[in-house]
Amino acid sequence: MKISEDKKNDIMAVSVSGEINIDTSPDLRKAFDQYAKQGIKKVIIDCANLTYIDSSGLATLIELMQRLKKIKGELKICNLAEKVKSVFEVTKLDKLFDICSNQEQAVERFK
Fold it and tell me: How many domains does the chain divide into?
């Protein structure tokens, strides 16, 4: 998994490529630890280049969303490929996360 970051104003856009799985989830958690230390409360995870996510990856995203909510923050997910989107739908997590079609829509949905 590769993570790239682009901070615009008070929003951190995180592009994830490759796989979020049991081996790579800790890396995503570490990145979020850094955002928390920086006081970032608005995060977009751009999944345009995400090819696979397993249950540990989903659990990590849930944990990250909960951490943001505790500090009155928000998490948006965008650009899900069909294969990855179906995982969210099967697990009903598409109802839990705010899933946007692109980064622009995600930015507009922040309060």
Answer: 1
